[in-house]
Amino acid sequence: MSSLPVLPVDARSKDESLTQALSRMLSEHDRALRASEDDPHVTAVRRLDAIEAQYAPFPDSLDPRLLKAITSRGISQLYTHQAEAVGHAMAGRNVVTITPTASGKTLCYNVPVMDAILKDSSTRALYLFPTKALAQDQLAELHQLAELIGVEGGGDIGVFTYDGDTPQDARRAIRGRAHVVLSNPDMVHSGILPHHPRWAKLFENLKYVIIDELHVYRGVFGSHLGNILRRLDRVCRHYGSSPTFICSSATIANPRDLAERLTGAPFELVEKSGAPRGEKYFIFVNPPVVNEQLGIRRSYLAETRRVAIEFLKRGLQIIVFAQSRLSTEILTTYMKDAFAGPPGAADVVRGYRGGYLPLRRREIERGLRSGEVRCVVSTSALELGIDIGALDVAVMAGYPGSIAATWQRAGRAGRRSGRSAAVLVASSAPIDQFVARNPDYFFDASPEHALVNPDNLHILLDHVKCAAFELPFTFTSTFGAFNVQEMLSILSEEGFVQKAGEQWQWTHESYPADAVSLRSVSSDNFIIVDLTNGERVIGETDLTSGPSVLHEKAIYIVEGQLYQVERLDFDGRKAFVRAVECDYYTDAIDYTKVTILDVISGDVVSLPPAHHGEVHVVSRVVGFKKIKFYTNENIGSGELDLPEQQMHTSSYWLTVPRETMDALPHGIADRRDGVLGLAFAMRNVAPLLLMCDSHDLGLSVDGVTADEAARTVGTVEPTIFIYDNYPGGIGFSEPLHSMHDDLVAKTRELIDGCPCRSGCPSCVGPEGNTGPLAKTVASHLLKLLSPPEMQSA
Amino acid sequence: MKDLASRLRAIVRDQRREPTMEPGETAGMAVSPGSTDLDAQAAIAAALGGAVVAAPEGRHDSACLVIDRDYDDARYHGRRQVDACRVSPQAPVALFEPRLAAVSDWARRMVFFDIETTGLSGGAGTVAFLVGCGWFEAEAFRVRQWLMTGPAGERVLLDALARTFDDASLLVTFNGRTFDVPFMEMRWAFHRQGSPVEELPHFDMLPAARRLWSRREDDTSCSLTALERSVLGFHRVGDVPGFEIPARYFHFLRTGDPAVIEGVLEHNRLDLVSLAAVTAHALRMAEDGPQWCREPSEQLGLGHFYERQGDFERALDAYALAGAADDRDLRGRALERQALLLRRQQRFDEAAATWLRLVEGAARPFSGIERRAAEALAIHHEHRAGDLGEARRYAEVVRGQVTGRHVAGVEHRLGRLARKQEKQKGDPLVAPLLDSD
């Protein structure tokens, strides 16, 4: 336990403290470079130069009251990107702006919105934020601006949040008085669009729709938003308005494409920021291997703690990002243990994650801005634009999963002038190891594409119902890519709508928006009840992973405490556990069967032997293994009888041709191990290419089960399926198919670049799970599957 | 690969929780009410005893029926004759709805109003498929209903309703302030029309009914059908329960079977007649005064209204009458109101006497009201009467009746009383100066 030195006040001494803190890592990196170490501890150090600000004047047509209000805040000119975005928006062109942290993105939309309201007080604007906290943050800023405009004689501009926290009795007043409504997609979906007549004033005069943090809307969430915006468009047309969209996004590969896909309208892109930036160091740290045989590295959480303490000791203010709520809590505990002040003193180390009460969060944010809080350990909750001031260092415990998110988190450290640093501490996950060992991939490659599929049939159909509820479809209406008339006639078979006159009338008692949750596949989950001392709920798990971690006799771990599941009440969604002491954990054996329904693309005979299409997935947990801690020995197993889960989704698949299998100079069992190892690695590389969460994808390998292989030696062509883990598919399969060559190349880099001898959790999987030759065979397979010009490499 | 239709069907059926209709029901589609076939419309209208409303100019379809029913003055609705449901212009309606004090001609043409909807959410996809209005004609109470037989009928219905409201001097509803009126405003807004009810005086009978006839203080379920039984002595036979109404309408839309919707029309008509009768009953009661009430709950309710309008003497009389009730809860509520009002008027001794009636002989354990009365007596004796011994006696009574969070408050009082008594003993001259609470 140690106490902290005072925070350095001026920029110069901050820079010096940072230089001192970095010097050890920099020299370690230099030493490794000189010795060309195989597995260096510090794998990359990059210095990003400071960038000067570029300014542009305010537009001439700007209302003078607004101009005065802005200049009274000390802003005498705009950054170039702000001026460009404002110009597009004021001319009524949809615009999406790439906005790094602290680049002043709010002016990009507040200027055109306030200007329009000043010129015509009936004007209305709708702001969408992915979280309520962000809306609150913006509310404060907009209130301030509206007040300054009021001082300049701009009248009373009403700015209100409208979300689940808005009191019922305030809602009516807000509907009438708000010029600017700050909300979120969930509220627009279930609270505003279905009640559009009450919002007639807003929709009649809606001039701007602002979508902040656009990059967040990918995958399922984005696919929902795309449909909500289709519904918004219908309602706006009904009231005779046609709003202009102003979007801001973190750096992704396809901001314009994403905006156009979500809104169905053409967009202008502003991508060059005019905001200044101080010098910044970006450092990759890979914890050293402690058990070479098993490829086990020192805990990345312990490594993160070590790195963070180094900076904290020198009086710097830091943010530590963890990957999960659990690791956030563990790291918070570590850091608090290291820096507990005298009893009763304010906490200098704080945790921050979803699930904390809003008041506590606001208190932590204030503490960060005032400098009272010196270290905050957070989940991705602080990755988004909440105002926490400029910190000195961002430490990431584990690769955030995408290039975009990594830059976004790194951006939490750094002021407009002065030095800052971002440190990425790799975990032993394959993705982390790939990034840590291939820093160029991270620094040179473009960030990921954000993918959405608003035409996923499941999602689309839900929103067709909502849309039919809001405004009747006519017999010529369209909605999305599929024939909505056909969808409506199916819905009429079930009594949801009915043909009447020239339109489809909603004829159902339900309120369809209530049945659709935007944020997750299913809101259903399992509750874990500890029976050791009475009944106590100790956790929850989502529905799909429930059976594999909560089956009977499973060992369930919470903060190092082991529990054994005594009973799983599948229908009641409860698992009853009791604390135990044992030296093993359990690993469920899933049986997943994928059946191809329809091949959408990929020629069966030509190379590459990859396809994508529609599949049917049946999965079931059939048993489990008991695995000893530390040695990873398999010390027993059990059978289970759990209900199977089925879905129709889309998939990418790779079939290894028979001649390729035959060309392998290995036995049948080793060939099988090689295919499984290859699948394990590919499945871990795919999220890297797709910019998606690891849970968004499922893996199944066909044609490799032991008996099958024995029966059909040499005749089976194994197939690796990487499927969208969401009914109907979310649109990952097609791009993954188009990135097939890249997928093979990156997987090859991962496996061949891994310093382990014969497989580890970071490449083809731990040796205990696969066979001794898995890595060798997988590597060989990849060579054979690569395009001819790459095979010699 | 399954075709789009079968995939859609699989998704829709998978999501469905409960069947929305019987299998094979669509097969027997007879007359489609939503069709523009005027003959079909006319056939349904005839079966329901109504007529097709003329379509607006330039359109040949209407899809809206109007059905009139007259309830003759001589007819009885329960114990009450229809003629006796007429309201005198002198009736003190502002006692129940203070906003009507400024409206002079409210009795000129009262329109009773009730709607049946396709759902309760009030979202854009729910409509009032049946709108009923009732008013008094020369020799009868007339109920006029508009029934939508398809979406094209809504504009016609809204226009007809607006014209009816144009002549009205007062709108009378049961829960209309929260439900019927905002619902219809939303429908007018949907069609981007102004609301014709915005300026129309409105009397919602439900809040008054709750005050007059709720059995218990926390009883907020005060349905019209319960009232017509208890207040009017009217019993419905074969009534369509409210939850069935949307499903019946959807069935009617699919099949065009008038028999399915007839029960809904009757339900709506009875609601309107009962509303008129209950309203007349309440206003007559207000005219006659509490001594003529049958029920103590009515006396207590009238007391509330008198108190609200500042007529404290009549309020006290009404509470006193209700305070003679046998029902312990009702008697308690009346006496408590009476005591509180007396205290507000600085009539402390009378207030204390009223509280004493509540505490004396009250069975243990005390109700909340009785405990509060004992507390009030302790306060009265400590601060007003200056009798610390009595104050302590009542505080001890309270102490014996409380648990949980109330205990600390009583203990505090007892401690203070004990200290005061000590001081009083020591120096009787200072005692009166020690009063502070």
Provide an overview of this structure.
The complex is a heterodimer of chains A (793) and B (437). Chain A is of the alpha/beta class. Chain A folds into five domains: 11-50 and 277-444, 3-Layer(aba) Sandwich (Rossmann fold), CATH 3.40.50; 55-270, Rossmann fold; 457-515; 520-582; 591-620 and 638-791, no CATH class. Chain A is globular and about 80 Å long. Chain A starts with 10 loop residues before the first helix and ends with a helix. Mean pLDDT of chain A is 85; it is low at 708-714. Chain B has 437 residues and is an alpha+beta fold. Chain B folds into three domains: 30-288, 2-Layer Sandwich (Nucleotidyltransferase, domain 5); 289-345, no CATH class; 347-437. Chain B has helices at residues 4-15, 38-47, 93-96, 153-167, 180-190, 205-213, 224-230, 245-255, 258-288, 296-308, 312-322, 328-344, 348-359, 368-384, 388-399, 406-426; strands spanning 51-52, 64-72, 76-77, 80-81, 110-117, 128-136, 140-148, 170-173, 202-204. Classes of the chains: A alpha/beta (793), B alpha+beta (437).
What's the arrangement of secondary structure elements?
The complex is a heterodimer of chains A (793) and B (437).
Chain A: H1 11-34, E1 42-48, E2 55-56, H2 64-71, E3 78-79, H3 80-90, E4 95-98, H4 105-119, E5 124-128, H5 132-151, E6 159-161, H6 168-177, E7 180-183, H7 185-192, H8 200-204, E8 206-211, H9 219-238, E9 244-249, H10 255-263, E10 268-270, E11 280-285, E12 289-291, E13 296-297, H11 300-313, E14 318-321, H12 325-338, E15 349-352, H13 358-370, E16 375-378, E17 393-397, H14 403-410, E18 420-425, H15 430-437, H16 439-444, H17 457-470, E19 473-474, H18 484-493, E20 497-500, E21 503-506, E22 525-530, E23 536-542, H19 546-550, E24 555-558, E25 561-569, E26 574-579, E27 584-601, E28 610-628, E29 634-639, E30 645-655, H20 658-663, H21 668-690, E31 697-702, H22 706-711, E32 719-724, H23 733-738, H24 740-753, H25 774-785, H26 788-791
Parallel strand pairs in A: 4-9, 4-10, 5-7, 5-8, 6-7, 8-9, 11-18, 14-16, 14-17, 15-16, 17-18, 22-26
Antiparallel strand pairs in A: 1-11, 2-3, 12-13, 19-21, 20-21, 22-23, 24-25, 25-26, 27-28, 28-29, 28-30, 30-32, 31-32
Helix pairs in contact in A: 2-5, 3-4, 9-17, 11-12, 21-24, 21-25, 24-25
Chain B: H1 4-15, H2 38-47, E1 51-52, E2 64-72, E3 76-77, E4 80-81, H3 93-96, E5 110-117, E6 128-136, E7 140-148, H4 153-167, E8 170-173, H5 180-190, E9 202-204, H6 205-213, H7 224-230, H8 245-255, H9 258-288, H10 296-308, H11 312-322, H12 328-344, H13 348-359, H14 368-384, H15 388-399, H16 406-426
Parallel strand pairs in B: 5-8, 8-9
Antiparallel strand pairs in B: 1-2, 2-7, 3-4, 5-6, 6-7
Helix pairs in contact in B: 6-10, 7-9, 8-9, 10-11, 10-12, 11-12, 12-13, 13-14, 14-15, 15-16
